[in-house]
Amino acid sequence: MEERLKKIMAGVFNIDINEINKDISIHNVEAWDSLAQMKLVFAIEEEFGVVFDEDEIQEMVSFNAIIGMLEK
After folding, report:
1. Phi/psi of residue 68, each to 5°?
2. H helix or E strand, kind and range, residue 61
C-alpha cells in the first residue's frame, strides 16, 4: 500500500519517488496546494477503490495521515 501511495504522490507532485517518505506533508512539499490535493485524492480513490468524505479529505495532509485513512 505504501509503495502504491508513494507512486501516486510522486506523480501528482512531480517529484522523485525517493523523496516520498513518512515525513512528507503539505508543509514541506511546495507543489502540495489545493489543486494538487484534489488531484491526489482523486488518484488515491481511483487506485484503491475508496471514496473519502470532505472531513477525511481535509485531514489528508501528510503521508502518514493518508496511510491511516486507507487502513480504516
Report:
1. -60, -40
2. none
Burial 20-38, CB ≥16 within 10 A → b, else e: beeebeeeebeebeeebbe
Give the right CATH number for 2-71 from 1.20.1600.10, 3.40.50.720, 1.10.1200.10, 3.10.560.10.
1.10.1200.10
Sign of CA dihedral 25, 26, 29, 34: positive
Q: What are phi and psi of 62, to 5 degrees?
A: -155, 165
**pTM of the entire structure?**
0.92
Give the tens place of pLDDT for each residue, 28-49: 999 999 999 999 999 999 999 9
How far apart CA 28 and CA 15 sit, in angstroms, is 12
